[in-house]
Write a structure and sequence with these properties.
The protein is mostly helical. Among the domains are: 71 residues, no CATH class; 40 residues, no CATH class. The protein is 71% helix and 4% strand. The chain has 20 helices and 5 strands. Strands 4-3-5 form a 3-stranded antiparallel β-sheet, with no helix packed on it. Strands 1-2 form a two-stranded antiparallel ribbon. The longest helix is centred in the N-terminal third of the chain and has 57 residues. The radius of gyration is 45 Å and the shape is elongated.
C-alpha cells in the first residue's frame, strides 16, 4: 500500500508540474530529421519525450549490465566448478604418485591434463610419473610444453634442467640453467647446479666465476664455510690447469696464494712443487715437498721426493733427508715405512728389515708391509719367512681359503656370513672373482694331459 500511495503521489506531482510547465511554455518546437523531413511538437511534450527516452536508455543500460553480470557469474561458477573438479582429480593423481602407484597416477593426471591442457602443475606431476617410469624423453616433452605456456616459470625450468641432467644431456641442462639464471640471477640452487655441470665438464674458469657469485651470496650461514672451501678448490683447479697448459709461473703464483689462505690444503703444495720442477727449479721443488711433509705428514710428499731424487740418480740425498727426519721424530711410522722401502730398493736389506719389522711389531696390518717384508726375506734367502709374509699379503691361510666379498658394498670377509656386517645386506657374500669366473669360457683345443699321466 505504501508503494502504491507513493507512486500515486509522484504521478500527481509530475502531472501538476507538467500542466504548469505547459501553461507557462505554450510554444512549439520543430525538429528536423533531414533537410526535408521534420516534425513539430509542443515544448512540454518534447521535454517529456526527452525525459522518457533518457529513462528508457538508462534502464536499458542497467538491464544489459545486470544480464551481463549474471552471465559472467554463471560462467565463472561453471569455470570454478570445473577447476574444482580438475583439482580433485589432480590431487588424487599426486597422491597416487607419492604412494608409488604410477599406473593409477598416470591415468588420473592425464585426465586432469586433458580437461585443462593449460594447467602447469599437471604437466609437472605427469613429467614426474614419466621420469620415475624411466621415460625421460616423455618427461622432457611434457616440461617443454609447460615451458611454452609459462616461458619464465622457475619451477618448470629447474625441473627441465634436472631431467636433462638425469638423462645424461648435460649440455642442454646447462643451457636451461643459464636461462633460469637470466630470469632469476640470485637463484643459488641453480647456480650450484650449473657450477657442478661446469666442474664435470672441466670448465674450471667458468665454474670459478660462478662460485665467486655463490660465495658472495652465501657470506654467512651454515653453508658459508663449505662454499669458501669450494672456492679454494676451484681456484686450485684453475692453477693446476695452468700448469698443464704450460703456464708454470702462473701456477706457482696461484698455489703460493692458496697456501697462504689454507696452509693445510695438500694439492696446492704438491702442485707448487710440480710447477717448480716444470721450471727446472728442482731445489725449490725439494724445499716445497720437504716443507709439505713436515707440515702435513702426507705420503704424497715422500713419493714426490723419491721420484725426484731417484730420477736425478741421487738417492743418497733422499736417504740423508729420511734419516735426519727420523732423528727429529723417531716415532714417525709413515717415514719409517718409506725409509724401509728405500733401503730395500738400494739393496740395504738389513736396515730395511730393521725398519719394516719395527713397523710390524706395532701391530700394523696391511698387505704392502707384508710384501716388503717378504721381498726382504727373499733377498736374504730366508724362503720360509718370505712365504709366510707372502701368504699374509695375499690373505691366504693353510687351508688356501679364497674368502668372500659383499656384492653390494665390496666389504671383504674371511668366512661366509648370511648377512654382510658392513652394509647389513642379506645373501650378498660371494667369491671375489665369481663373476669373472662365470663369464669366462674354456678355450677349445687339445686337452691338457692330466697330472700324473703320460702318453707313450
Amino acid at each position: 500500500m505504501i508503494v502504491v500511495a507513493l507512486f500515486m503521489f509522484v504521478f500527481i506531482v509530475f502531472a501538476v508540474g507538467f500542466l504548469v510547465f505547459w501553461g507557462n511554455n505554450p510554444g512549439e518546437i520543430t525538429v528536423f530529421l533531414t533537410s526535408e523531413q521534420s516534425f513539430t511538437l509542443p515544448t512540454a511534450i518534447m521535454l517529456v519525450c526527452a525525459v522518457l527516452l533518457g529513462l528508457l536508455f538508462g534502464n536499458g543500460v542497467h538491464i544489459f549490465s545486470a544480464l551481463a553480470n549474471s552471465f559472467g557469474t554463471w560462467r565463472g561458477g561453471r569455470k570454478q566448478k570445473k577447476a574444482a573438479e580438475i583439482s580433485v582429480v589432480y590431487r588424487s593423481g599426486v597422491g597416487r604418485l607419492l604412494s608409488g602407484d604410477l599406473k593409477k597416477a598416470r591415468t588420473l593426471l592425464r585426465k586432469a591434463l586433458d580437461r585443462d591442457p593449460q594447467r602447469i602443475d599437471s604437466h609437472l606431476a605427469l613429467a614426474s610419473v614419466a621420469e620415475q617410469e624411466g621415460n625421460s624423453q616423455e618427461a622432457i616433452d611434457l616440461l617443454q610444453t609447460a615451458r611454452k605456456i609459462d616461458p619464465k616459470g622457475l619451477e618448470i625450468l629447474f625441473k627441465l634442467a634436472v631431467t636433462f641432467q638425469h638423462a645424461g644431456r648435460s649440455e642442454e641442462a646447462l643451457v636451461v640453467y643459464k636461462e633460469l639464471l637470466a630470469n632469476d640471477a640470485d637463484n643459488r640452487k641453480a647456480m650450484r647446479a650449473l657450477r657442478d655441470i661446469q666442474i664435470e665438464q672441466g670448465s674450471w674458469q667458468d665454474a670459478l666465476a660462478l662460485q665467486k657469485r655463490i660465495s658472495k651470496a652465501t657470506s654467512s650461514g651454515p653453508k658459508a664455510e663449505a662454499e669458501k672451501q669450494q672456492l679454494l678448490q676451484l681456484r686450485y683447479e684453475v692453477a693446476r690447469n695452468a700448469l698443464l697448459n704450460g703456464e708454470a709461473e702462473q701456477a706457482v703464483d696461484a698455489c703460493k696464494d692458496l697456501i697462504k689462505q689454507n696452509a693445510g690444503f695438500t694439492p696446492a703444495r704438491v702442485t707448487l712443487g710440480d710447477a717448480h720442477r716444470e721450471l727446472k727449479r728442482d731445489a725449490d721443488a725439494i724445499r716445497v715437498y720437504q716443507e709439505g711433509y713436515k707440515a702435513l705428514q702426507k705420503s704424497i710428499f715422500l713419493a714426490r721426493l723419491e721420484d725426484l731424487y731417484i730420477g736425478a740418480e741421487d738417492p743418497a740425498a733422499l736417504l740423508s733427508f729420511y734419516r735426519s727426519r727420523m732423528q727429529e721424530d723417531s716415532e714417525d711410522l709413515l717415514l719409517k715405512l718409506y725409509l724401509g722401502r728405500l733401503c730395500l730398493r738400494l739393496e740395504m736389506v738389513d736396515e730395511a728389515l730393521q725398519h719394516l719389522t719395527d713397523l710390524e711389531a706395532t701391530g700394523i696390518e696391511f698387505s704392502q708391509l707384508h710384501l716388503l717384508l717378504a721381498e726382504a726375506h727373499r733377498r736374504r734367502h730366508k724362503v720360509d719367512e718370505a712365504v709366510v709374509e707372502y701368504q699374509r699379503a695375499l690373505g691366504i691361510d693353510n687351508h688356501l681359503s679364497l674368502g668372500f666379498v659383499c656384492e653390494d658394498c665390496g666389504a671383504k670377509h674371511f668366512e661366509w656370513l648370511s648377512r654382510c656386517t658392513d652394509c647389513k645386506a642379506w645373501d650378498t657374500l660371494v667369491l671375489p672373482e665369481r663373476k669373472q669366473i662365470q663369464d669366462a669360457k674354456l678355450i677349445e683345443g687339445p686337452k691338457a694331459i692330466p697330472h700324473g699321466q703320460r702318453v707313450y
